[in-house]
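Whether sequence alone determines local backbone shape is best considered at the level of individual chains. For completeness, the protein is quoted in full, as a sequence line and a line of structure tokens:
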Amino acid sequence: MKKTLEFLRTFEQTFSYVLIVLLTVLLSTQVINRYVFSTSFVWVEEIARISFVWLIYFCVASAARENRHIRVGLIDMFLPPAAIKFITHVADALVIIFNIFIVWFGVKLMISTFGYGEKTPVTNIPMVLIYAVIPFCFALMVIRMLDYNIRDIFGSPTPQSDATELKSHGE
């Protein structure tokens, strides 16, 4: 399981970096073409939009890996640590259930889109490939949240986050 999680982490990071570079290159090219050469490529905007959406989903999955999703911290001031831990695990369980529903409906969306043969207007990319990010990244979030909560409940050490690794290396 540890090797699988490490592979997913490496894949998430690499794919996110590729998307950031792709977005930067595409949008820079588009700006230069528009303002210097008074022309533009129609396909650039479509690919950039798709890349941006995919990047957001991968960043959300990455936040789940780091356990950095938005939480209400006000209760931390009024409740004892045991109650906070319990409430946190209940909230995480609800989020996991919600994410499983999103995975389910994301797969249904992909099947439906595949059945209709929808494609993007400019580049003719099958929409099923674009929608694949939804169940994939929400499944990643489920895996990450389950791993984090199981480790927390049973007292296993949680893997270091990227931020912790950077601090420990003096960067």
Summary: The mean pLDDT is 86. The CA atoms of residues 96 and 150 lie 13 Å apart. The chain has one domain: 2-158.
